[in-house]
C-alpha cells in the first residue's frame, strides 16, 4: 500500500523548489523596490554657511555634514534614496544667505540647515512653508518664526561656560573676552555669571583677525579677576588667546564653552599653567552616549586624515547632529517631503537624543536677542591630557541653575601652584 505522504527525499526536493521560487519572488520584489528607490530623486538637504571670504568663515561644519550624509547612504540611505547635503557658501554676506535659501528651496530641498532668519532666510521658509532644521538662531526673528527649529546656539555657550566656571571656581570677579561688538555673547555671558552670583564682570573686546594677544592678556592681568575666558571665533582665535595667556604666565582659571574649541585649543589648554572649565554641549563621552560613539566612529571611518580640525567644537558637532537626526526622522516618514518633515517636527514637542535633553521648540529665552536658549543644556567638563573630559553625565542649565560640582580652594591651589 502506498503511503499518502511523500518520501523524505521527495519532500525535500519539493520544498526546495518552493523555497527557490519564493526566494526568487522575494529577490525580484527587492530588486524592484531598490530599482524604484534608485529611480527616485535624492533626498536633498540645503546647508547654508560661510566657508570662505569672511573672518568668521569655517569649513569643519560642512565637512562633518558631508560625513554624516556618507554614513547615512552607506547604511541604505533614506528608504533606499540617497541623501544629498548641498552646501551653499555665503562668504559671510547676508544677501548671499537669502540667495542660497531661495536656490536650495527651488531645487527641492526638504529642509535648510544653518542660515539665520536675520538674513532673510525666514522669507523663503515662509514662502515655501519649509522647516529650518538647526538654524544659527542668533536673531529675535527666529523666535518669531515657527518654522525655525533650533536645538543649539553658538552664543548659548557663553552663558553655559560662565555659569559653570564661576560655580566651579567660586568666582566673585570675572573678565569675559569677546569679539569686538559682539553684544549677544557679552549679554549671555553676563547672564551666566549673574546666575552664579557674579555681578562684577569686565568685558575685554578683541577685533576680528587679531594675531597679537599680548596686550589683551596684560589687560586681563591688570583687572585681577578670579576667572577669565571667553569665546572668540573662529576657533583659531581661541587657540591664539589661550597660547598667549600661557606665554604671559597667566595662572587665573580659564572659563569657556567647547563651542569654539579646535584640537589645537585642547592641546594648548592641556599645557597651560592655569586650570580650565568647559561647558561640553553634547556629552562628549563615547562610553556614556551612543550618539557620540557613532560620531567618533564616523570620523574614524570617513576622516582618516583628520581634515576636521575641531571635531568637538560645538558648531561642528551641531551640524553633524543636524544631518544625522534629519536622516533618523526622515526614515520614519512614509514619504519624505517638505510637508511631511515640517509636520513631524512641528508636532514633536519633546525632541531629544541621548546627547540632548528634551527640547520644546516654542520656548523663548530670557536673554533678549537669543531665542530658545532655555532649551540649551550642557555637561560639566574640562580639558586634561589632550582630551575633553565629561565631569558629570547629568546635563546642567545656566537658566535653571542646575547644581554643578565646585572645586575646593585646595584643588585650585594645586592646579595653579599657589
Automatic annotation (TrEMBL):
SUPFAM superfamilies: Periplasmic binding protein-like I (SSF53822). Residues 43-362 form the Leucine-binding protein domain. InterPro entries: BCAA_transport, Leu-bd, Peripla_BP_I. Keywords: Signal. Residues 1-34 form the signal peptide. It comes from the Bacteria. The keyword Signal applies. The keyword Zinc-finger does not apply. It holds the Pfam family Peripla_BP_6. Belongs to the leucine-binding protein family. This is ABC-type branched-subunit amino acid transport system substrate-binding protein.
Amino acid at each position: 500500500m502506498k503511503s499518502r505522504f511523500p518520501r523524505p527525499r521527495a519532500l525535500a526536493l519539493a520544498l526546495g523548489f518552493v523555497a527557490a521560487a519564493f526566494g526568487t519572488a522575494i529577490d525580484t520584489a527587492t530588486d524592484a523596490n531598490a530599482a524604484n528607490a534608485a529611480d527616485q530623486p535624492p533626498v536633498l538637504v540645503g546647508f547654508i554657511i560661510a566657508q570662505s571670504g569672511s573672518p568668521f568663515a569655517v569649513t569643519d561644519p560642512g565637512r562633518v555634514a558631508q560625513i554624516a550624509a556618507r554614513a547615512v547612504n552607506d547604511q541604505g540611505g533614506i528608504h533606499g534614496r540617497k541623501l544629498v547635503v548641498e552646501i551653499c557658501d555665503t562668504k559671510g554676506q547676508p544677501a548671499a544667505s537669502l540667495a542660497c535659501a531661495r536656490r536650495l528651496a527651488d531645487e527641492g530641498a526638504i529642509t535648510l540647515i544653518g542660515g539665520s532668519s536675520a538674513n532673510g532666510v525666514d522669507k523663503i521658509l515662509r514662502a515655501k512653508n519649509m522647516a529650518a532644521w538647526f538654524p544659527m538662531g542668533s536673531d529675535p526673528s527666529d523666535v518669531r518664526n515657527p518654522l525655525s527649529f533650533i536645538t543649539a546656539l553658538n552664543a548659548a555657550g557663553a552663558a553655559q561656560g560662565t555659569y559653570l566656571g564661576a560655580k566651579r571656581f567660586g568666582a566673585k570677579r570675572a573678565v569675559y573676552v569677546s569679539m569686538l561688538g559682539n553684544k549677544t555673547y557679552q549679554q549671555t555671558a553676563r547672564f551666566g555669571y549673574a546666575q552664579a552670583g557674579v555681578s562684577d564682570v569686565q568685558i575685554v573686546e578683541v577685533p576680528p583677525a587679531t594675531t597679537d594677544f599680548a596686550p589683551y592678556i596684560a589687560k586681563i592681568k591688570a583687572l585681577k579677576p578670579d576667572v577669565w575666558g571667553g569665546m572668540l571665533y573662529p576657533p583659531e582665535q581661541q587657540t591664539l588667546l589661550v597660547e598667549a595667556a600661557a606665554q604671559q604666565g597667566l595662572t587665573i582659571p580659564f572659563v569657556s564653552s567647547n563651542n569654539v574649541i579646535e584640537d589645537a585649543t585642547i592641546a594648548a589648554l592641556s599645557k597651560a599653567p592655569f586650570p580650565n572649565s568647559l561647558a561640553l554641549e553634547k556629552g562628549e563621552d563615547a562610553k556614556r552616549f551612543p550618539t557620540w560613539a557613532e560620531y567618533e566612529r564616523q570620523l574614524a571611518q570617513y576622516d582618516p586624515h583628520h581634515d576636521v580640525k575641531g571635531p568637538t567644537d560645538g558648531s561642528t558637532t551641531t551640524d553633524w547632529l543636524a544631518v544625522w537626526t534629519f536622516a533618523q526622522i526622515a526614515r520614519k516618514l512614509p514619504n519624505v517631503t517638505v510637508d511631511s518633515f515640517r509636520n513631524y517636527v512641528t508636532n514633536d514637542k519633546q525632541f531629544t537624543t541621548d546627547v540632548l535633553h528634551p527640547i520644546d521648540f516654542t520656548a523663548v529665552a530670557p536673554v533678549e536677542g537669543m531665542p530658545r536658549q532655555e532649551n540649551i543644556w550642557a555637561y560639566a567638563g574640562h580639558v586634561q591630557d589632550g582630551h575633553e573630559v565629561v565631569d558629570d553625565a547629568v546635563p546642567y542649565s545656566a537658566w535653571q541653575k542646575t547644581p554643578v560640582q565646585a572645586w575646593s580652594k585646595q584643588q585650585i591651589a594645586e592646579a595653579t601652584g599657589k
